[in-house]
Specification:
Keywords: Membrane, Transmembrane, Transmembrane helix. By secondary structure, the protein is an all-alpha fold. The chain folds into two domains: about 50 residues; about 50 residues. It has five helices and no strands.
Length: about 130
């Protein structure tokens, strides 16, 4: 987290400690200058944001790669039918002939879709069984 010019690298614990000290200073300043209701509101927002960040990081860590409901969180290369086909071939699920036939079918289908003006970004290579 430090700069490339020889700055210090802070640990995650140190970063959180610095942020909490700064948040405390902000809350005390608001309490003194604006009043207790504003300080309470800012405290609630800060605490809520910490829990939201924690929840989102925990949720991202638990994403099941086989879960079809998590498709939106996958990268484009993981959704790519050619990449899926290559992974199946590499895992030994497909023979050379099956791989070539499916790849040829995919290329033909993509060319036909392009000629028809159909967006193929979200289409699957095979029907779900």
């Amino acid at each position: 987290m430090g700069s490339e010019s020889g700055g210090r690298n802070y640990s995650l614990t140190e970063i959180f400690a610095i942020k909490f000290v700064l948040a405390d200073i902000l809350i005390i300043a608001v309490l003194l200058l604006a009043g207790p209701l504003y300080a309470l509101a800012i405290t609630a927002l800060l605490v809520g944001s910490v829990f939201l960040v924690w929840y989102l990081t925990q949720r991202v860590d638990r994403v099941d790669p086989d879960d079809e409901t998590a498709v939106s969180s996958r990268t484009a290369s993981e959704r790519d039918p050619v990449t899926k086909l290559q992974k199946r071939y590499a895992a030994g699920e497909l023979s050379d002939a099956e791989f070539e036939a499916k790849l040829e079918r995919l290329i033909d289908a993509d060319e036909r879709a392009d000629a028809a003006g159909v967006d193929t970004a979200e289409l699957e290579l095979e029907r779900s069984e």
